[in-house]
Write a structure and sequence with these properties.
four-stranded mixed beta sheet; single chain; globular
Length: about 325
């Protein structure tokens, strides 16, 4: 589909529904000040002055999809616990449909608690399980996915290696999505890296590409990146491969076409959550009919924008639209 400007694209986003499958979690923050060392152990004592909990993991992808104007439908599992209830309540407060969510008494809700002093992270405490899905959990999750797929315009797999995504979930979802002509985009982790056969777009970062294929790939050597992307595309039979290269930008391969999108100079405060923003923009772009090069360029802009903020935050739609126009993305 042809778009004359960013506004026309974002208007198309407003009509989209995106199914987000993956590992959801709660991001918890404790901010405070340090003025002394504990007498109990050689560690700083943090005097807490602010606490906050936010939707995290695949739920941050849902927040980014929502920030872009589309409707996210998270399809995931939380525990039957206080943090799981917080998660579901927060979804409702945000106006995000919870009909794809499953409550399990066999798992705990993943929580990542960060202790910060100023802009410096002192400690992170993780509460989680990464065990495989039980037969009942898998059956329930697949039923939700297949029930929701026909009303969606794209699928995002957001894998954090916490066990919710497995090879059966992947293969059956991609098969059904392909049958319905619904694009599937993947933000992978190591455990299931080579399981996403037939996906529309596969988006590893450079480290994941190197480890997943056990190859050496130099981000300053375009031919090296091209070779790595082609090898991955061949293994997965994916229509597109997109590799995020940090300060070297973004590379995308779409069938025979390749494009390297340079990074933009920014004041980087925190890279946390940038990948969530990138995959959200990619999914919405492809679902709306945007071509591969402009999809990658827009995702590159959005990923950079969220790095200017401390903590995990969704992209600002107005700021992204302004930058897209300033960069003459649609000229």
């Amino acid at each position: 589909m042809s778009f004359t400007n960013a506004s026309s694209l974002f208007n198309a986003f407003d009509k989209l529904k995106i199914l987000v499958i993956g590992d959801v979690m709660v991001d918890s923050y404790v901010w405070g000040s340090v003025s002394r060392i504990s007498p109990e152990a050689p560690v700083p004592v943090v005097l807490a002055n602010k606490k906050e909990k936010r939707l995290g993991g695949a739920a941050n992808v849902a927040l980014n999809v929502q920030a872009l104007g589309a409707t996210p439908i998270p399809c995931a599992i939380v525990g039957d616990d206080i943090d799981g209830q917080f998660f579901l309540d927060r979804l409702e407060e945000k106006g995000i449909p919870g009909k794809g969510m499953i409550i399990s008494n066999e798992r705990s809700t993943t929580v990542k608690e960060r202790v910060l002093s100023g802009a410096h992270q002192l400690l992170r405490v993780d509460t989680e399980t990464d065990k495989a899905l039980s037969a009942l959990e898998q059956k329930s999750l697949l039923a939700h996915i297949k029930n929701l797929l026909p009303e969606c315009d794209a699928v995002i797999f957001e894998d954090y290696d916490k066990g919710v995504i497995n090879e059966t979930i992947i293969s059956e979802t991609i098969s059904e999505a392909n049958r319905l002509n619904i694009p599937t985009v993947v933000d992978p982790k190591k455990r299931n890296f080579l399981a996403y056969k037939g996906a529309t777009l596969f988006k590893p970062n450079l480290k994941e590409l190197r480890e997943g294929l056990e190859i050496d790939c130099d981000p300053t050597d375009l031919e090296s990146v091209k070779a790595g992307a082609k090898a991955l595309q061949d293994v997965l039979d994916a229509k597109m491969v997109m590799v995020t290269l940090s300060e070297h930008g973004v590379f995308i391969k779409d069938n025979g076409d390749t494009h390297l999108i340079p990074a933009h100079i920014r004041q980087i405060s925190d890279v946390s959550g940038a990948g969530d923003t990138v995959i959200s923009i990619v999914a919405c772009g492809l679902a709306a009919g945007l071509d591969a090069r402009r999809t990658a360029a827009l995702a590159n802009l959005g990923g950079g924008l969220v790095c200017e903020y401390i903590g995990v935050v969704p992209v600002n739609r107005d700021a992204l639209q302004t930058e897209a126009d300033e960069q003459k993305l649609f000229d």
